[in-house]
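the two lines:
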Amino acid sequence: MIWGVLQFPGSCDERDALRACELAGGEARLVWHESRDLDGIDAVVVPGGFSYGDYLRAGAIARFSPAMEAVAEMAAGAAPVLGICNGFQVLCEAGLLPGALLRNADLRFVCRQVELIDETGGRFSTPEGGKGTSRLSIPAKHGEGRYYAPEEALDALEANGQVAYRYAPGQNPNGSLRDVAGVTNEAGNVLGLMPHPEHAVDPLTGSTDGLRVFETLAAAGAPA
Amino acid sequence: MARARVLIRPKEGILDPQGKAVERALPALGFEGIEQVRVGRMVELEAEDPERLGELCEKLLANPLIEDYEIQPL
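prediction for all of em together
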């Protein structure tokens, strides 16, 4: 299993993402945003940060990078693609995921541990072997994480099982509609979430729940 | 080159916390009776082909899911 972790000018979580991929039992390499070459890569992480300074709208400019064109092709080919925080914003702007991320309702940047519920019943939290629960404790840190989609689109997402993660009751840090913390595309191979699983992979930092996200995706994307 | 101004604003019905924050600050400064404050963006540009500005707005300057735009020739 070989992961590619994109790096834009302004990315800042790519190193933690690389390490998380490796801890989940894979090999991981950085892919510079100007590179269109994803040959040999089985799964992609679009990491957090402030790509292109978040100019215009978060993720709006990064989506036009050559690397993102290659990611769109991989996504269409059913490869796992994980967007975290700014990566989630980029995937939404690129149309690879439904919806948009707006300024936090209270206008404050949040940085704290949040509890997530895996709404897929374990599809994105339980690696093969079945250990763990469908609750994850991982950090959130963002200023623009309020998930928005029109009401009827939200109904459709719920009906299709595309709401992957919700903030646990009372923990919504940004005013996100229906407490949505992460969604998938219709096919289920593209996943985006605002909180940071890559920062919760080592007992040193208090929780290793984030590792399960990477392990689950790795299991889904491992070449047969 | 044709000069134009593009106004981008949050769609009706979408919570605009920036507008709300501005609105709440006004009474403290002595500005009473101001309501429905909405904060958007303005982009000024020069275009060789103004016909394509709509497409430019749809693809980059605005996110049509959450924002409306208005192109004003200058």
